[in-house]
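CORE FACILITY INTAKE
Project code: CF-77B
Contact: R.S. (postdoc)
Sample description: multi-component assembly, two entities in total
Requested service: structural model of the whole complex
Turnaround: standard
Below are the sequence entries exactly as provided by the requester. Do not edit them.
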Amino acid sequence: MNRRGFVISGISAAGMLTSALPAVPASSPAPAMVTPAGIPALFGVVFDRRFEAARLFGRAAAWRGHMAFGYDGDLTATWLHRLEPRWSRRAGALAGMTTPAALFCLEQLAAQHWLRVVTRTGHAARRGQALVSWVIA
Amino acid sequence: MRVPPNVSSADYARALAEFEQAIGREWVFTSDEDLDLYRDAFSPFLNEPEERIASGALAPVSTEQVQQIVRIANKYRIPIYPISTGKNLGYGGSAPAYSGSVVLDLKRMNRIIEVNEQHAFALVEPGVSYFDLYRYIQEHKLKVWIDCPDPGWGSVMGNALDRGGGYTSANYRNHFDSHCGMEIVLPNGELLRTGMGAIPNAQTWQQYKSGCGPWIDGIFSQSNFGVVTKMGFWLMPEPEAYQRCTVSVPRYHDLMPLVEILNFVENSRITSGFPDLESPLLGYPPVGQIQLWNETGPPKMSAEHANLLKGAKLGYSPQIEAYGARAGIPYWRLWLSFHGPEEVIQAQWHAAQRHFARIQGAQFAVVEQVKLPVDAQQATKYHEPEFGVPSLRAFSIGARTPWNPTPSKGHMWFSPIIPRTGEAIIEANRVFSEAAQSLGMPLFTTFTLPACFWERAFIFILATPVTEDPHLNKRYREGFKKLIEVGGQHGWGEYRTAPVFQHAVMDVYSFNNHVLQRFHATLKDAIDPNGILSAGRYDIWPKHLREKA
């Protein structure tokens, strides 16, 4: 895949996920509405800053008013300080574009709160590193 | 609706109703969607008929609720399988050993009951993860360290009860050994406290381990004799400094004195940090740098070097040894670490060098000198667990990278214990590499170094892949069992294993016509006559299931 195709794929993935979920007004409190398909409203997105498609994904989500948590390969601090406290409070759904290994890690951690991966889509990436976009709810 | 084996639908329905009354309907799980969360993500039987699955799950929040559950389970003979946070991946995960059991999910029991800085201990419930305990300690600014495995997402109690290990000082790396006092719900619903906890209003429950009379704590590890609901742990006082050093030796046969001297300096407490063996010449990383190698790739090797490696047998050839001498690449490198006041560390390192200097050509280096404390962000410059900081960076292992383009779906840990000698390392490589090759197993394909999680013994902890090919998985399962048998023939046993292999592993412990297993069965019949608790765990089966087998 060339760079243009790769970037378009990333944008498409970003578009697919974030357009499925409503924009959150900046002044709004924690969303209580349920989106189509019964997925709770999004409390944020997580993305791996090492990959351009993921950065685009994060940017698109932030533009739509969602909290965007970027990390650089190591999920530890993001999970510990951003995600886990919100999952403990049942804050809502989380979307992301990450490596499959990171999704696996988050999927296992989400299970501790009886949350599960409700959608996942694989994407090719550069240098053989796959990305996956997903929603946990 | 799934129903546990040997239980009628009517009895199960009644039991579920009583479970709901005891713990609340929202914490009783029976849907396929909910029970999917209790599958073993690394199951070597994933999606096959033999995969162990739960027929229900219960999530109590208190010891009293656990007692109620156990009484109901006894009433209706419901097999239950306690888990803490369910992160025992590679050793069975959250799936029950006896398929169809109801999982007793203890993760809601996540109270940190006490962290005592003065006496350096913690008392926790099963749902407390290493991250939870670390965060508590940081938030309360307590000057104590945890010792955690890698990744650090698991339960403090769960890891200790399966006898896992970590990376800081020897006193704390063996997680079961560093516990002090337990509270257990017995299979009849009674509450037991061990050690000094058996004294009402005990003042030293987390200070003195063995109480008086038989010290029974061990029988609640890797077993099915009770549901542990509280456990005390000794914690390491935050050291003032940390130092990491290396001892590098040039020749293949230097491995023998290197290990012998390591044993002496460790047993004498000249060093107590996590020792780590590496072979720069053979390209074998130390455990503490596997993450780094996975993130950035292994160190570059010249074409000549790589070519010479192909001719090495059991890690040796005179040509590769000569190349190492010429190129200044050590055959073996031992990483030592020290915790404590700087002046003590310097004295210890000085003494260690004096002992290792008897190996001709040994070279010494100080790699890191770190004033403590460091925060979690600073710790990312190092291998975080060696600083008592839990991490998720281990998920770079097995991730797809240019150096690992086809990661597996999971792994099963092959983890035999071997003697702490250089000779044993070589012999184990000979035995296991021959066996693995004949079985088509992807283990011991190159000379493999063991890890030093435990004092006094070595351990190999090697990942056997779980793949998407059921035929390949079957071959690897059968090969794994054969390797267990081969190890047993040489006096080497596994330290821990997944339920699918627990019979094979325990079969190796066969001294005096399997008297150990017969003793376990005797205890099981006495303590759990209805056989409701974790049937089959570590091959301890209740009477009614032994008779059926």
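Facility notes:
- Chain B touches chain A at residues 29, 33-34, 36-37, 41, 85-87, 89, 107, 131, 135, 151, 153, 295, 376-377, 380, 384, 390-393, 395-396, 398-402, 405, 407 (CB under 8 Å).
- Chain B is about 35% helix and 15% strand.
Invoice: internal transfer
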